[in-house]
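Team,

Forwarding the record for the chain on the shared tracking sheet. I've put the sequence and predicted structure together so nobody has to dig through attachments.
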Amino acid sequence: MSDLRNRPTGKTDDELSFAHKVWIVVGILALSVCLILILRVAFNVLLMVFAGTLIAVFFNGLGDLIQRLTKWRRRWCMLVAVPGTFLLMGLLFWFMGNTIQAQVQALKGDFPKMIAAAQTKLSQTEWGSKALENIQGYDTSKLMSTAQSFFSTSFGVIGDLYIILFLGIFFTVSPSLYKNGIIKLVPPGGKEMAKGVINRLSLVLKGWLKGMLLAMCLIATLSFIGLSILGIPMALTLALLAGLLNFIPNFGPLMAMIPAVLLGLVDSTNTAIIVAVMYILIQILESNIITPMVQKRMIDLPPALTIISQVLMGTLSGVLGILLATPILATVIVLVDELYVKRQKESRFDLD
């Protein structure tokens, strides 16, 4: 009798439970909408944070390598890794900066002449004439302006470099501070799993970054040797461009091959074909040697998902999104595997 008196008039337990659930759903939807709006506004900021994380992963990986080779204390290894990287980059720009800048300016200025010469050479062949007829209606002035702006912005890499560098340095100086901060946000029952996920992400990104840097150096070196043997002008800039653009799977090597083939086409059609074959052979070597080495240290990324992620990230955030599409895809796949797939397997095991 007392329970009936204390119960609010006109409302049953089912009605109260239903209203409570409705408010929970409304709150979740409102929170989701707010998070989506925040992510949409601050998406580029999140990308810069992720890029800074990659820089911190690079510095920590280099520090691990120095520690394994020298057996020094961790602090001294990091003091060598971070300033040593900037010192090495400064020396490279000191010795090659003027040459690279001059070649980039020359490549930018000669690009319209290269297009005109390519059109002339193609018009002299039957298949080239058909190709020109197919692209006759395309706005070539737009293509040339896009290419010129690409070369005038240091290989098209645009972004808040200083912010990314400083974020990377701060993450490198005290990684445990940010790692422990993330773990504190996780409920007590999931802290161990959070540590395991972060450690696996670190291992995957280190392996991917190590293999990517090795592939970039290999492709730049082989491209420079091949272009120098063929007598292609601006070989140093084209080789560095090939190495840097290899950071972008699928599309990067094709973008790097275009200016080299155009320069070869200025000389002769056979030279352009030889240059294209050389680039293709270098990519085959990289795909069959370097890529398998990378995939041993990280998950196997499906090619279709890689292309989809590049197109999606490029649409959302331009050049920076394309550059970070592959490591972001690797991160997402690891999170899905750790937080969903493995939990599903564990639940099936418990049911059995």
